[in-house]
Amino acid sequence: xxxxxxxxxxxxxxxxxxxxxxxxxxxxxxxxxxxxxxxxxxxxxxxxxxxxxxxxxxxxxxxxxxxxxxxxxxxxxxxxxxxxxxxxxxxxxxxxxxxxxxxxxxxxxxxxxxxxxxxxxxxxxxxxxxxxxxxxxxxxxxxxxxxxxx
Length: 150
Description:
By secondary structure, this protein is an alpha/beta fold.
């Protein structure tokens, strides 16, 4: 699914001109594809070494690239695994630093069609024309079927 991206702000002329909202959206698309195919190498290239993930329902925290890759790797081994998708709705570029804030909607889908999802925010940093994910925070706002729990 194509995401709707509204770019706000622009980097100063001293910043890397490759650090655009479109390049960030390409990084998000690559991360989504890596989730779908369980490509941990592709994920690793997009994660800052100190990346932080805060889950949507229980606010569990996964800090660091290695810990997050371990999470994704074990998730792929689960026969009841959910497939996750993040869809950007807005990307704001800082006019001061090579950083950006992404807002959007996330969905986790099971093989039997149940879904859980909600909203997310993500902070990115551009280094040498390459966006790295520094933090993602999720909030669960909807669910269907067995994913709603007790």
